[in-house]
Amino acid sequence: LHQRLEEGKSALGLAVNVSRLSLMQDDFLLYYSNVKERYGIPDGLLELECTESLALFDDHFREMVLELKKRGFRCSLDDFGAGFSSFNVLKDLPIDVLKLDMLFLRKSRDLARERIVVSNIIAMARELGVRTVAEGVEHAEEVDFLRSRGCNMVQGYVFARPMSEAEFNALLDEARDGVLPLAQAEPA
């Protein structure tokens, strides 16, 4: 991210997964604040992703999120719907982004019910002023559905497989207005 900014390329948000162990370190806030400052990362570009379980079982997590936001970080709740999802977390936690677990789009016995649940979670997040990201999207039809419901962003193999940094930078340079084209289907 620092290199892109130095080269005058378009800025992009960068999300970093934060583990329970790192969050419990005494120097957690200082460490991430120093990294942000050392590399001259503007406010709002670094997003720290925490799993929902941290929010459910840590009484001090809300205060940590508020402090991170004061320091210019965005905060997201990762893997929502993967385990003990709680609407109280959404009600009480001042997050910026809600990341819907890929299980919402997998192994559903009833596609109509699945889509009702996903649609309403997206609508609720929008009313709370929280952006939504659907994780693990693999099919163009899922992208179309999520777009039609107002999901802010989708990520998954439908766009690209894991790649090297050089390939990633080339892909970003080709993106138009921050939107990546759908990946081409591989021959069977």
Q: Please count the helical segments.
A: 9
Rg from Cα: 17 Å
- Please state the average pLDDT score: 86
Kindly, what is the distance between the CA atoms of the first and last residues, rounded to a whole number of angstroms? 36 Å
Strand fraction: 5-15%
Query: How are helices and strands ordered from N to C?
Result: HEHHEHHEHEHEHEH
Taking pLDDT < 50 over at least 5 consecutive residues as the criterion, the unreliable ranges are: none
| Tally of DSSP β-strands | 6
Helix content: 40-55%
Strand line-up of the largest beta sheet: 1-2-3-4-5-6
Shape: globular
Class computed from helices, strands and strand pairing: alpha/beta
The biggest beta sheet, please? 6 strands, parallel
What does this structure look like?
The protein is α/β, with parallel strands linked by helices. It contains nine helices and six strands; from the N terminus they run H-E-H-H-E-H-H-E-H-E-H-E-H-E-H. The protein has helices spanning 2-6, 20-23, 28-38, 52-57, 61-70, 87-92, 111-127, 140-148, 165-174, and strands at residues 14-17, 46-51, 74-80, 97-100, 131-134, 153-154. The chain has a six-stranded parallel β-sheet. Strand 3, helix 6 and strand 4 (97-100) form a beta-alpha-beta unit. The longest helix is centred in the middle third of the chain and has 17 residues, at 111-127. The relative contact order is 0.10.
